[in-house]
User: What shape does this take?
Amino acid sequence: MLLVDGLTTVFNLALQLVSWAVIRDVTLLGLLYYFGSWIYHVYEPVPVRAPRKYTLSSETCHGGRQIKIVEPATGKEVTDTIKVMSYTPEEVNECVKKAKKAQVEWGQTSFAERRAVLRDILNAVVDDQDNICRMSAAESGKTVFEAEMGEVLTTCEKIRYLVNHGEDALKPSVRRVPLLLAVKKAWVEYTPMGVIGVIVPYNFPFHNVLSAVVSAIFAGNAAVVKVSEGSVQSKDYLEGLIRKVLAKRGHNPELVVLIAGYGDTGAALVKCPDVNKILFIGSPATGKKIMSAASENLTPVILELGGKDPLVVYPDMHFEHTMDTIIRASFFNCGQNCIASERIYVHHSIYEKVATEMQIRASKLRQGPSLINGKPDEIVDIGAVTMNEQIDLVEGLVKDAVAKGAKVLNGGVREDPSKGRYFQPTVLKDVTHEMRIANEEAFGPVMCLIKFQDDADLIKKVNSIAYGLGGCIFTKDYKKAEDVARKLNSDMVCMNDFGLYYLCQDTPFGGSGESGFGRFNGPEGLREFSRTRLFVTDRFGVPTFAPALVKYPVPANARPVVKELVYFFYGVGIMTKIKAGINAALLMLKK
Assistant: This one.
């Protein structure tokens, strides 16, 4: 017994030493690879082009009506000091025409040149992140911290991914050919589509624009982006940032255009025959209109239409971590987040405990303007709701829930509009699926606590609505989490954390059902912005001609030979194949 224990101890010690050595060596190799790749991409040679001059599209496009601008966090109208005009349909078409012309040249650039442009954009973002965060907080009402996380960090990671790995997704892909065509080879190439039309919402005015633009141009396209009329203050800044980089590198700055306006402006972009694809991020109702309008020219669309994401809490979860995450998942960016956890499903055995904890934690959240005299105020946790119309919707959903039996544990009140667009962070208990708020996207600071009895009850409730975007599951049992995740109508599920699938830029982002279709991010997202083209040729560079039996006029033995070949290639059993091979050979020898 002592000998066995001694050998076990020695074995475990040796294993530990080997493991640490392996970990050390693998870590070192990983760091060398990472920094080596970074140095290569930073210093890779690119053609030197003569710098160009650039202007802003708003300098020539200002024929529409002026857009009213109100700062959500203060309720202050700044239309007189920040003048933004909507683009007319004629101006939209002209912008697209210019972008199309610029794309012809840009589509011929190498990936090295595109990486150089993206690196310059990344540098500009990093250097000016304080200003970017202030602008985002001012025009959307979010906190400066939320701007740093949701606008700057995510954009930087997006660009880093494209610089380091984007080319891999767009390289030619060799495809298999059947044994019948062994002398042939096939491959797929991903080439630019042309002009990508993009329509984005107001919740992340900086990231929504940059994320779409860098993906589109890295794939060799031009991008014409309609920003939301609810967040237009940074439009010229963003367009100027991108165009300055393009012009300095010697590329046509009109490759990227940011346009502002209302529904008629967006409709003009969608219906423009020179637009080759549309990416729309917004509500299902508007997405259906976009799809209908795009069908006039058979313009393909990607629709990211929001969600009503579930967050599932099992009794064996890590309590503190889970409670912290629920607060963040529900109230980050004042709930104005397509992957916000709007439905919190809690196991019945811990329901009261979780409800009490949420009431306590929500009551401690500090809400208000994140900027005071243009300077960040670090003590604010939650900012404002960007649009008044959204507060109306949230207020109506809460009132409907209360009327049907839900209890307000915290918040539920709309603040004085003269002080800004605020709806208090709200926690609703005893929410059921008979209430509108359990089925409709709120897109605001409301947490809905829903009780479930067992897995069958949970899955039935989660899958009872039409959305299918993301979701989260909290439990220490990872196998159970994965098993349940596969049964949910959520196309993206995160175990024991929230929303990480968006920061993982190598993964496809998107949903199904009322959450839309198509993907952005990851290889799938880049290929969505590309034409998929197939090529087939002779494998050895020598022409291989079709056999006589497939020539016209069709020989008498053609069909019998093909029939035997089907048995030979696809039949079951060795004797069947041998017999078919002999028969095919004899038939082909017949005159």
